[in-house]
Design goal:
Elements lengths: L3 E2 L4 H7 L15 E2 L10 E3 L4 E3 L20 H5 L1 E3 L2 E3 L5 E2 L2 H17 L5 E5 L11 H18 L5 E4 L11 E4 H7 L5 E8 H14 L3 E3 L1 E6 L2 E7 L2 E2 L5 E7 L17 E8 H14 L12 E4 L6
């Protein structure tokens, strides 16, 4: 069972309207999360007796004026407590013991948060993970394919991960360690899988019928729930050829209704978490002066009824 603690805190939101806290502050939350779908489609992961699901709460700090603190402006961003009262950045003064205690808790956590407030990259614009393909999801899978190829020393032709593994958007401007931790919080390992083209065709046909996941190295066209065409590396899938696939451990045996280990010729799971792999890539690219930037490229096309390719 994989259980992670979600960023933010609905308790803190209700008590004081203090925003951007606690995975931004020590990964503490009232919400327990496990991997599922994004947005309004809340996913769930179950063991024999327990289910954990992910929910997203919008935190409104407009009454307090609280902002997300950096490593060196906690007092300015969060306000202060004096004489049993909480003085918010907005100028409002709160006498409630619950509000004061909540503010004290968040402020006390700030020194320990300094490492996750480190700037690791720069993004010229907000990038989102949107269905059926997007700039952020394309960025993620292509970088993951590169990392898997580097670690395995094997050619990687295709990449498959799930949209539910990308939990937040890439922000515009400075990107912090915390942003990447919040984006990829699950403890999934990098995995190399070799599969016949016929099996990949079966996987992509299932996606065409039930919903696409994040893919790389391919161009897929679907219409009316059917796979119209599938290319890998610009060529039609060869059913008899063996392809190298980069994926994550969550998807090997049923995660998000994918069983990528089925009929595999080879499976190698590496003790490398997704977060660590992405941090290495972003840190290296930043050192080379590269921003965090990507785009759509038409790798997944869903045609309307009556529309031709």
């Amino acid at each position: 069972m994989k259980v992670m603690v979600k960023s933010g805190s609905s308790v803190i939101m209700a008590a004081a309207g203090i925003a951007c806290m606690l995975f931004m502050s020590l990964s503490a939350s009232a919400d327990v999360a496990s991997e599922g779908k994004r947005g309004s489609d809340i996913g769930a992961e179950c063991s024999d007796t327990l289910c954990f699901s992910w929910s997203r709460n919008v935190i409104d700090g407009s009454r307090t004026g609280v902002e997300c603190p950096s490593a060196d402006n906690a007092a300015e961003a969060l306000g202060y407590v004096k004489g049993g009262k909480y003085f918010a950045p907005s100028g409002n003064v709160y006498r409630s013991r619950t509000v004061r205690k909540t503010a004290e808790l968040v402020m006390a956590a700030q020194p320990a948060m300094a490492p996750v407030k480190k700037v690791v990259g720069y993004s010229p614009r907000v990038m989102k993970a949107e269905y059926p393909e997007s700039d952020l999801s394309n960025y993620f899978i292509d970088k993951l394919m590169s990392a898997t190829e580097s670690i395995s020393g094997k050619p990687v032709d295709v990449g498959i991960v799930n949209f539910g593994g990308i939990r937040v958007d890439m922000p515009q401007g400075d990107v912090l360690v915390d942003d990447i931790m919040s984006m990829f919080p699950f403890k999934n390992h990098l995995v190399y899988v070799s599969l016949k083209g016929s099996r990949l065709r079966e996987i992509f046909s299932g996606m065409a019928e039930h919903g696409f996941q994040v893919v790389g190295g391919v161009r897929l066209v679907a219409k009316d729930g059917q796979l119209v065409s599938a290319e890998i590396g610009g060529e039609p899938i060869d059913d008899d050829r063996t392809y190298g696939l980069a994926t994550i451990s969550f998807l090997l045996n049923g995660g998000d209704d994918l069983s990528l280990s089925k009929d595999a010729l080879e499976i190698i799971e590496y003790p490398v978490y997704i977060y660590d792999a992405m941090m290495d890539i972003i840190t290296r690219d930043t050192a080379e002066g590269k921003p965090i930037e990507y785009s759509r490229d038409g790798r997944v096309v869903i045609l309307d009824s009556g529309e031709g390719e």
